[in-house]
Design brief:
The complex is a heterodimer of chains A (116) and B (115). With 116 residues, chain A is an all-beta fold. Helices cover 0% and strands 59% of the residues of chain A. In chain A, the strands form 2 sheets. In chain A, strands 2, 4, 5, 9, 10 and 11 form a 6-stranded mixed beta sheet that branches. Chain A has a 5-stranded antiparallel beta sheet with strand order 1-3-8-7-6, with no helix packed on it. Classes of the chains: A mainly beta (116), B mainly beta (115).
């Protein structure tokens, strides 16, 4: 069965420092993987997705993630944190069904704090 | 293009009362999903509609929850009677009916607090 583990419920970085949010997945088939972000008082926004094309995926706001099959990982990174990156980040794996729909299986989320 | 909208944004009710949440998907999206995040837990799937038909309601917690999708457009999720453990954030998402299109577009969520 598909599952997602996000290591670290809270991550704190200094402004300008590297951001690394960890995600490991379990999937019996080649996965589609997603990172969503929830800014304070807002909904879930798609950051980026992996769909079996390039293993390094670039998203919005300078984030990127690398799919590593051997490590079953899809970690999210950003070279230099900005105060506006403070939010909660969710990794998800897609469970596809016949009939053209899918379910998203989410990790527990990682809350990123950025301090000056 | 308007995104997924949800109403209300917040709801505070007492145990035993009824609450109805509404979701308007992106126009033209046949797939509509409901998810829930209980405090401190993962976001979990509740159910899925394709047009007006319930395709999968395996995540619905119990029969106090009733979801409908009138005419394949907007959807409502009714909780009756509400219990304390129903508190959380209820998200709605939609997507086109396309086997290759797995991205779901989420609304802002409804924050439900049952006292």
């Amino acid at each position: 069965a598909q599952s997602v583990t996000q290591l670290g419920s809270h991550v704190s970085v200094s402004e300008g420092a590297l951001v690394l949010l960890r995600c490991n997945y379990s999937s019996s088939v080649p996965p589609y993987l997603f990172w969503y972000v929830q800014y304070p008082n807002q909904g879930l926004q798609l950051l980026l997705k992996y769909t079996s094309a390039a293993t390094l995926v670039k998203g919005i706001n300078g984030f990127e993630a690398e799919f590593k099959k051997s490590e079953t990982s899809f970690h999210l990174t950003k070279p230099s944190a900005h105060m506006s990156d403070a939010a909660e980040y969710f990794c998800a794996v897609s469970l596809m069904f016949s009939g053209g729909y899918n379910k998203l299986i989410f990790g527990a989320g990682t809350r990123l704090a950025v301090h000056p | 293009e308007a995104g997924v909208t949800q109403f209300p944004s917040h709801s505070v009710i007492e145990k035993g009362q009824t609450v109805t949440l509404r979701c308007d998907p992106i126009s033209g999206h046949d797939n509509l999903y409901w998810y829930r995040r209980v405090m401190g837990k993962e976001i979990k799937f509740l159910l899925h509609f394709v047009k007006e038909s319930k395709q999968d309601e395996s995540g619905m917690p119990n029969n106090r929850f009733l979801a409908e999708r009138t005419g394949g457009t907007y959807s409502t999720l009714k909780v009756q009677p509400a219990e304390l453990e129903d508190s959380g954030v209820y998200f709605c998402a939609s997507s086109p009916r396309d086997r290759g299109h797995q991205t779901q577009y989420f609304g802002p969520g409804t924050r439900l607090l049952v006292l």
